[in-house]
């Protein structure tokens, strides 16, 4: 099946060339960082995790979001997702590869990464995160490949694969739960020390993953002659709507707890993210525009989807705009605000703001491009197999 | 056998490629390094042969003993006592990292990371307190 | 033929997988893996009215009392203590906040005790800088989160140690420490060290570091460098918190002390007399 990536239209090759260029830029930036150290990033003693870990956190959600296709199709036998379930599995693979790359980019001593295996520490959530991320990656590779191969041969997939499909369902939940546990078990960080972090992560994941899949379906429909089907897209937008609403609800609960209880520790990070935090006569607010843009995007996206449901209209462009807005808003929520906001103020009540450097952005771009490169190749295979069956 | 025409030349190219370092150097390993030994000191923590083979393991043991097991008992060599450690013990006699450690490490193309943190005698002297 | 090849590949694959995961499994099942975490650290306490059966360590547990009354009247003393530490541990001097490496440093009361911040503070709390360092907690969150046991509690003395050889630089401990006691080497620290102490290594880039209660000096029978710099003043008292006859317990029995963020449940070993 791999040979399918070698034949494509000129747009396909141009897209790969663009991604390849971004990967090259990222690789060059990483070499610089590797030689000098993480001092080339904007991270500091106070904001000790930056864009790498925040992207990792967000992408774990994207990977887990594929569950919203696997669950209806395999457990509830929802046939409309038959054609696109493989897209969810392949999205999970590329998102997980990005996650692992972001973790490696973030390590001060990347060559010692295997110490996590040589000195296994079950008390550390990072150890478990490694276990579930690798487990989910292997499961998705296995299930995706075996089922696609069976589909190509037009036979039923072997029975044993369903065991792994069913195992992958709790795994998807576990990857994001354990990732939330990296944060919500730390005694000194009020913004993260909240039992609702894991459910909130899952809610936002079940919106972010499917909205990226919707966008992918629209792209494939336009450029690859692959139609996911109107029913499948409509069902996905329903899932996205519910997930966004639940995520927003959970987030508003954080606001209630903070501002109603009046406990400074619970207010500070929210204040910093949405209104700017005053400290020693200076107002720190560099994330405020991002958070309000995200809020506006989220409600606009939600509004568009709601309008289509109520007015019973369906328009691919509207679906695309709404999905893109929601995806971006969730990216700003979890891929920026959640991680950076948690470090403000620091345990000594001081404020340091974080601004990523150009080199750091280059590496981040390179890893995203690598993920999309892999995603493109995998989707090329999946679509190629579909076309082969139809022919 | 299928594809004899490609497999055999391929194998030949592979073998030539893999053995390149051997014949490029004329099947000669070059002159054996002669590290500078400390003058006047006859004894080490262990016999020379054992040190040659296992000094890296010993250093790891010392590291874990000192840092993790709080076992900082001194080592006795030839009547003298030394604190466990690369800087504290080894480099007290082997005072020249460049002429001792490096001579073999360069030859064997290994680059241990010891000196990223531990100070060689020369480095320690380069920023000495001057008042 | 095809069948046997497939069989061979299956067995080879399984064997390779087993081989790769073997070290992890062996380590996990051997008891020594947990030795540094548990030894001598889990007997429940009884008696005190406010406590709920929280475990208290047994054996030696080193701690420190910082008497701010002394530092308040001798303004140079804290600077001397900090300088002594910086010199002994080859701590680099970065001028920018981002790269700072700090083992012991100065901060205002409001920053050291944000949870005990009040509107009307004493003159001392308002104006004098406080000494801040690692609390060498009895229940350290940094140790709990470390994925490689590069930071650990030494069972012999309760010191929270760092193994710079093993640290992978994930900085999870920095996120977990409720006291901001940890620093990361964002770049090679050596160019920023003025004078080397040949008895102690420097660090390399990419590892986390913090106060080690001068474990290397204790082994030689010396006091921690900062304590030594304050010798004779009583500004810093160092000793075994679990020994009722120790000097530090004498001070703790007599004076009212506070600790940084006790609500974090980490059970710090550093006390302050304000």
TrEMBL record, chain A:
The chain crosses the membrane at residues 12-33, 53-74, 86-105, 125-148, 160-183, 195-219, 239-260, 287-307, 319-341, 361-379. Coiled coil: none annotated. One of its GO terms (cellular component) is plasma membrane. Pfam families: NrfD (PF03916). It is a multi-pass membrane protein. The keyword Phosphoprotein does not apply. InterPro entries: DsrP-like, NrfD-like. It comes from the Bacteria. Its main location: membrane. The keyword DNA repair does not apply. It is found in: Cell membrane. Keywords: Cell membrane, Membrane, Transmembrane, Transmembrane helix. Belongs to the NrfD family. This is Molybdopterin-containing oxidoreductase family membrane subunit. It comes from Desulfoprunum benzoelyticum. The lineage of its organism: Bacteria, Pseudomonadati, Thermodesulfobacteriota, Desulfobulbia, Desulfobulbales.
TrEMBL record, chain C:
Residues 1-35 form the signal peptide. One of its GO terms (molecular function) is metal ion binding. Residues 125-156, 158-187 form the 4Fe-4S ferredoxin-type domain. InterPro entries: 4Fe4S_Fe-S-bd, 4Fe4S_Fe_S_CS, DsrO-like, ET_IronSulfur_Cluster-Binding, TAT_signal. It comes from the Bacteria. Keywords: 4Fe-4S, Iron, Iron-sulfur, Metal-binding, Signal. The keyword Transmembrane does not apply. The keyword Metal-binding applies. This is Molybdopterin-containing oxidoreductase family iron-sulfur binding subunit. It comes from Desulfoprunum benzoelyticum.
């Amino acid at each position: 099946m791999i040979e399918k990536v070698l034949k494509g239209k000129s747009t396909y090759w141009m897209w790969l060339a663009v991604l390849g260029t971004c990967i090259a830029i990222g690789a060059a930036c990483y070499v610089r960082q590797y030689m000098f150290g993480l001092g080339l990033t904007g991270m500091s003693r106070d904001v000790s995790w930056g864009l790498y870990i925040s992207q990792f956190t967000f992408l774990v959600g994207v990977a887990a979001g594929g569950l919203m296709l696997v669950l209806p199709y395999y457990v509830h036998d929802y046939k409309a997702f038959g054609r696109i379930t493989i897209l969810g599995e392949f999205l999970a693979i590329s998102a997980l590869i990005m996650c692992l790359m972001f973790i490696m980019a973030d390590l001060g001593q990347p060559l010692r990464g295997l110490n996590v295996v040589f000195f296994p520490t079950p008390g550390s959530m990072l150890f478990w995160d490694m276990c579930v991320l690798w487990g989910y990656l292997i499961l998705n590779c296995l299930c995706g490949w075996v089922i696609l191969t069976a589909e190509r041969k037009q036979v039923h997939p072997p029975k044993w694969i369903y065991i792994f499909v069913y195992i992958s369902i709790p795994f998807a939940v576990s990857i994001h739960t354990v990732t939330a546990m990296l944060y919500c078990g730390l005694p000194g960080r009020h913004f993260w020390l909240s039992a609702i972090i894991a459910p909130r992560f899952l809610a936002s994941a079940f919106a972010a993953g499917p909205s990226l899949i919707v966008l992918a379906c629209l792209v494939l429909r336009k450029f690859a002659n692959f139609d996911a089907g109107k029913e499948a897209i409509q069902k996905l937008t329903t899932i996205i709507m519910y997930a966004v609403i639940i995520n927003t609800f959970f987030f508003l609960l954080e606001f209630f707890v903070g501002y109603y209880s009046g406990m400074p520790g619970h207010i500070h990070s929210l204040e910093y993210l949405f209104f700017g935090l005053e400290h020693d006569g200076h107002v720190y607010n560099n994330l405020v525009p991002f958070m309000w843009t995200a809020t506006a995007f989220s409600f606009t996206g939600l509004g568009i989807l709601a309008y289509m449901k109520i007015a019973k209209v369906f328009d691919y462009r509207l679906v695309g705009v709404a999905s893109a807005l929601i995806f971006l808003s969730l990216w700003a929520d979890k891929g920026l605000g959640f991680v950076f906001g948690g470090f403000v103020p620091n345990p000594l009540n001081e404020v340091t703001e974080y601004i990523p450097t150009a080199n750091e952005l280059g590496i981040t771009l390179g890893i995203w491009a690598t993920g999309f490169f892999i995603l493109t190749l995998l989707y090329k295979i999946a679509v190629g197999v579909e076309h082969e069956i139809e022919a | 056998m299928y594809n004899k025409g490609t497999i055999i030349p391929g194998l030949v190219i592979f073998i030539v490629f893999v053995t390149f370092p051997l014949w490029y150097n004329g099947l000669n390993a070059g002159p054996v390094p002669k590290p500078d030994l400390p003058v006047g000191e006859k004894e080490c923590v262990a016999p020379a042969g054992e040190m040659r083979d296992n000094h890296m393991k010993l250093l790891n043991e010392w590291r874990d003993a000192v840092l993790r097991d709080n076992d900082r008992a001194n080592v006795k060599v030839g009547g003298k006592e030394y604190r466990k450690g690369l800087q504290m013990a080894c480099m007290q006699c082997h005072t020249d990292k460049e002429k001792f450690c490096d001579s073999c490490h360069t030859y064997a193309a290994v680059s241990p990371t010891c000196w990223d943190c531990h100070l060689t005698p020369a480095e320690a002297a380069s920023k000495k307190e001057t008042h | 033929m095809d069948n046997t090849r497939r069989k061979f590949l299956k067995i080879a694959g399984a064997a390779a997988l087993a081989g790769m995961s073997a070290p992890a499994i062996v380590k996990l099942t051997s008891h020594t893996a947990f030795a540094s975490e548990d030894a001598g650290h889990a007997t429940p306490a009884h008696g005190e009215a406010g406590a709920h059966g929280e475990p208290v360590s047994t054996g030696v547990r080193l701690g420190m009392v910082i008497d701010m009354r002394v530092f308040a009247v001798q303004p140079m003393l804290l600077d001397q203590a900090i300088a002594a530490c910086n010199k002994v541990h080859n701590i680099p001097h970065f001028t920018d906040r981002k790269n700072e490496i700090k083992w012991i440093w100065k901060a205002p009361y409001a920053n050291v005790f944000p949870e005990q911040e009040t509107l009307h503070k004493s003159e001392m709390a308002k104006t004098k800088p406080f000494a801040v360092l690692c609390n060498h907690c009895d229940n350290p969150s940094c140790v709990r989160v470390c994925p490689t046991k590069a930071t650990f509690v030494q069972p012999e003395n309760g010191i929270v140690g760092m193994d710079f050889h093993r640290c992978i630089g994930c900085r999870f401990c920095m996120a977990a420490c409720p006291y901001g006691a940890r620093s990361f080497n964002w770049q090679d620290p050596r160019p920023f060290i003025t004078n080397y102490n040949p008895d102690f290594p420097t660090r390399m880039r990419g590892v986390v570091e913090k106060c080690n209660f001068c474990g290397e000096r204790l082994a030689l029978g010396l006091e921690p460098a900062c304590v030594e710099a304050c010798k004779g003043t009583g500004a810093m008292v160092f000793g075994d918190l679990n020994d009722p006859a120790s000097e530090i317990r004498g001070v703790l029995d007599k004076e009212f002390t506070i600790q940084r963020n006790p609500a974090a449940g980490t059970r710090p070993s550093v006390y302050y007399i304000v």
